[in-house]
Structure formats: C-alpha cells, structure tokens
Amino acid sequence: MFPEKKGSLKRKKQFTCPSCGKSFNSKSFMDVHVNIHQTIYSRKKSLTYTKWAKRFTKVSSLKRHQMIHKGQKPFQCTGCNKSFTHFSSLKTHQMIHRGQKPFKCSECNKSFTRLSNLKIHQMIHGIKKPFPCIECNTSFTDQSTLKKHQKIHSRQKSFTCTVCNKSFAWLSNLKRHQMIHGGKKPFTCIECNKSFTQSSHLKRHQMIHSGQKPFTCAECNKSFTRSLHLKTHQMIHSGQKPFTCIECNKSFTVPSSLKKHQRIHNGQKPFICTECNKNFTWLSDLKIHQMIHSGEKPFICIECNKCFTRSLNLKRHQMIHSGHKPFTCTDCNKSFSYLLNLKRHQMIHSGEKPYICIECNKRFTQSSDLKKHYMIHSGVKPFTCTDCNKSFKQSSHLRVHQRIHSDPNPFMCTECNKSFTRKSDLKRHNMIHSRKISYD
C-alpha cells in the first residue's frame, strides 16, 4: 500500500500539507491526511447558517444557534419567569435563587455561579490584565470587558428603549432599564420585603440589615459596602478630581457626578413624579419625593423615634443627640455637624453667591434658596394641605400650617405657658422675659 522503503523514514519529510503545513515522508500519507481536511470542510459547509455565514460542526449546534435569531426561549425559570434559549443557561440562572455558588476562589474564598466568572476574578489576584484600551490605557482581564469599555469612548449606544427612547451601550443595561417601565422587581429582601430589579441591588441593600461593610480605606479605616464607593472615597485623600465641567470648571472624582452636575447648567430634569408631575434632575431626588405621597419614612432614630426618608437625614439628626460638630469655621470659630453646612456658612464671609435667578438676577448662596425664589416668578405651589386644600411653595410652610389642624400651638413658653405655632415665634416671645430680667 505504501511503496516507500523503511529507510525512507530517515530521509527529509518532503511532502507538505497545503492546508496546515504538516510534513510527511510519503505522498500517500499526505493524501490520506489531506482527505481529512476536505471531509471536515464539506461537513462544515453543509452546516452553514446562511444569514450570518456562521459555521458549525454539529447539526444540534446549528439548531441551538438558530434559536437566537428566531428569539426562541423555551426554558423558563419558575422563580421569576425569566426565559432562556438554552437549558444550561436556565440551570446557571437558577443558582441565583438558590444562592448556590459552587466555584470558590482559593485566594479570598469569594464564590461564583459560573466557572468563567471565577477565572476572570482570579486575574485580580494575579494582576493579569492583558487587554489594554488604546484610548485611556485602562487594562482588562478579558476581551469582552474591553469591548464593552470601548463603547464609552465611541459613545456608541446601539440599544434604544421603545418606551422612552433612552439609549444604552449594552443590551443588558437596556433590559434592566425596561424593568422600570414594566414595574418588574423579581428580587425581594426577606428582611423587609423591599423588591429590586437586579440581584446586585438586592445584595447591596441586604448589607444595610447585616451592617456588612467589607471594603475598608487604608488611610482612615472608613468602611464601605461597595468597592466603587471605596475607590471614590480614596480620591479625597489623593485630591484627585479628573473630571472637569467645561461650563464652570468644577471638578469631580467620578464621571457620573460630572454628568449629574451638568444638568444644572442645561436645566435638564428627566425624572417625573407620576403623582404630581413634578420634575427632578436626579432619580434619587424623585425617589425621596415619592415618599411624601406614600408617607414612607424607613429610617428611625433610636433616641427619639423620629422618622426620616433618607439615611443621610437620620445621620444628621443623630448629631443633635451626640452634639458632635467636627467642622469649624476658621474665620469665626463657629462649628458645624456637616462639612456642607460649613461651606455654606463660609460664603457669608467670602460674600460668594454663585446661584443667579435668570428672571431678576438676584443671587443666592445655595441652589435650594434659588429654587424657592423661582416659585415667586412661576407662582407654583406644589405642596397642598389634605385637610383644607391650601397650597404652599415650600414643604416646611405646609408642615407649619398643618399644625393648625392637629396641634395649633405646640411650642409653649416655660415662663408664662403661652403657646405658639412656630418655634421662631416662641424664641421672639422669650426675649420679652429676658428683657424683664435685665430691667429688674
């Protein structure tokens, strides 16, 4: 069958395969080898999906692939009704509901539902990031993450929401966004029954109940629930603020803060309350506002049981009980509980009033004061009393008014038992008694 002599095996391999470059001692051996390439090629050709010219070695693989183009998702999760093209994808997804994470990192014991996610994570320990971005030199552990990142530079947003026309760089972000319109919140906290659109948001929320803050700053030992918050915080120590507003030259540590800030200049208020049609610059402000309608105040002071819509407001309030005022003005030695209040106060000494009314050019030290002032020009009174339908420009004015219906005079003078609707009126009244004492 093979005419070459045994001695020919020692000779130079002079017959080379044109497809893969492999060499052979005899032409007959090479011909047998070449037939393998031709068989595989003809088989692949018969399994070509003509729409995208993608080829498969198995009929089953082609059929599975065609489901993507047809939009077929026959495998449905009984936990949240999410559908999948492949059964294996459903199995992996179901691990989220069971809390199952079989793939554990030997370095830090962090667990993952997928082996591929574990492998990507393990590169953090080895600091192996072989895929650099040519635009900004940021490196990534895998090529898919690099491709996603590069969309930031190209500003490519291929995926558009059909409801509100908002565009996204990634399909996963569009799907998450669409849950807002659909009202879908499949991930529920077992502690307080609060629901979320994403499992990552639920995990972050659960840290409130557990008090877990695994990310600690090496400079000041302050801890955070998210690594992103730690990185942002560390910029305070380094003084790094790489993102600058072209309108006013104000700098920010993260691009998201810059984007939010720029809405002040362009007047953009994309978030609308469905109850009263009030517009907001930021989604967080809308969520807090909606608590007025729902009456929700989830943050409670353990000292006096006063409730708040925001954890930040609770923290500020708690300083009243502790008397802690760490921020001191260098001009007049007045102390403040918060850095923001100190900065506002320092504007009195500097005479700085950066917020200008476009109607009458009146200046203000705070944006909140400017907003209140705008209502004079617009005549808007968004805060309405549920008892008598009287409207007010400010929520504080509404609260004072509501005392008429409940407790008309909550502030009582300890000297003469006279009562007042406002604390400021009581203070003014107390001056009468102090003057009498000085005259005596």
Automatic annotation (TrEMBL):
For this record, an example GO cellular component is:
nucleus
Question: Tell me, what is an example of a GO biological process annotation in this record?
Answer: regulation of cell differentiation
Task: Please list the coiled coil stretches.
Answer: none
Q: Supply one GO molecular-function term.
A: zinc ion binding
Q: What Pfam family does this protein match (any one)?
A: zf-C2H2
Q: Domain of life here? A: Eukaryota
Q: Where is the C2H2-type domain?
A: 15-37, 54-74, 75-102, 103-130, 131-158, 159-186, 187-214, 215-242, 243-270, 271-298, 299-326, 327-354, 355-382, 383-410, 411-438
Q: What are the protein's UniProt keywords?
A: DNA-binding, Metal-binding, Nucleus, Repeat, Transcription, Transcription regulation, Zinc, Zinc-finger
Q: Which SUPFAM superfamilies match?
A: beta-beta-alpha zinc fingers (SSF57667)
The cross-references to PROSITE patterns, in alphabetical order and at most eight, read: ZINC_FINGER_C2H2_1, ZINC_FINGER_C2H2_2
InterPro entries, A to Z: Znf_C2H2_sf, Znf_C2H2_type
Where does it live in the cell? Answer: Nucleus
Concerning Gene3D superfamilies, the annotation shows:
Classic Zinc Finger (3.30.160.60)
Q: What does this protein do?
A: May be involved in transcriptional regulation.
Q: Which family does it belong to?
A: Belongs to the krueppel C2H2-type zinc-finger protein family.
Q: What is this protein called?
A: Gastrula zinc finger protein XlCGF52.1-like isoform X2
Q: What is the lineage of its organism?
A: Eukaryota, Metazoa, Chordata, Craniata, Vertebrata
- The gene from which this protein is expressed is LOC117354499
